[in-house]
Amino acid sequence: MPNYRLIRYADDFVVLVSGTRAHTEALLPEVADVLATVGLRLSEEKTLITHIDEGLDFLGWRIQRHRKRGTDRQYVYNYPAKKALRSIKAKTKTICRMNVSLPLAVLLHKLNQVLRGWTAYFRPGVSARAFQYLRMIVRRQVFGWLRRKHLGVGWKELRRRYCDGGWWPHDGEVVLFNPGSVVTTRYRPRGTTIPSPWPSTS
Question: 190 in the Ramachandran plot: left (φ > 0), alpha (ψ -120 to 50) or beta?
């Protein structure tokens, strides 16, 4: 017989099945019946049966099993999903479309709030490459905003004004938050050590 584990956050959930695909497919009607009792139904677009080696997206994370580089052992990794990366890129791009008549410090404040929140959420995972990629994207977007703000001004002058000769933007004491500087963490899933809100009555 298969073993099941339910992981839920609000109305999003994943059922982990230790068994065969047939066991998983047989579980779908049961899940639909449980949801029907509270007036909900399974979304055909979001409902997916997949193997852990193929991976799945859940709450912004991509969860997938890979072989560890240089070894024959396999581990389950969680890292930011492509959809989550596209979302943060779109948010920072929208911010960098703001009025160029405003000071750079205003732009940096708005970007820093979004970047700190996003990196804090994805910090406990394999996110270092995503953070470095986001660092490159945001720096490019800020320089695009500066180029529109100062039409006809060259790169050297922009670097002198806003980067002290380097390549990282700031306006006085307000410095653009660097996603690439965030150190990722690892954690052990606590599983059954988390107390259940519905203790057994037996």
Answer: alpha
d(CA 141, CA 7): 37
Structure tokens at 88: 């943060």
DSSP H/E element including 141? helix 128-149
Largest CA distance in the chain: 77
- Global pTM value: 0.84
Q: What is the full DSSP assignment across 164-177? A: TTSSS-EETTEE--
105-118 pLDDT, tens digit per residue, is 999 999 999 999 99
Confidence at residue 1, expressed as pLDDT on a 0 to 100 scale: 82
Burial profile 176-187: b = 16 or more Cβ within 10 angstroms, e = fewer: bbbbbebebeee
Q: How far apart are CA 13 and CA 59, in angstroms?
A: 9
Q: Tell me the sheet residues that pair with 166.
A: none
CA distance 65 to 71: 14
Tokens of 43: 């979304």
What single letter denotes the amino acid at residue 68? K
Q: Tell me the two tokens of residue 107.
A: 């732009």
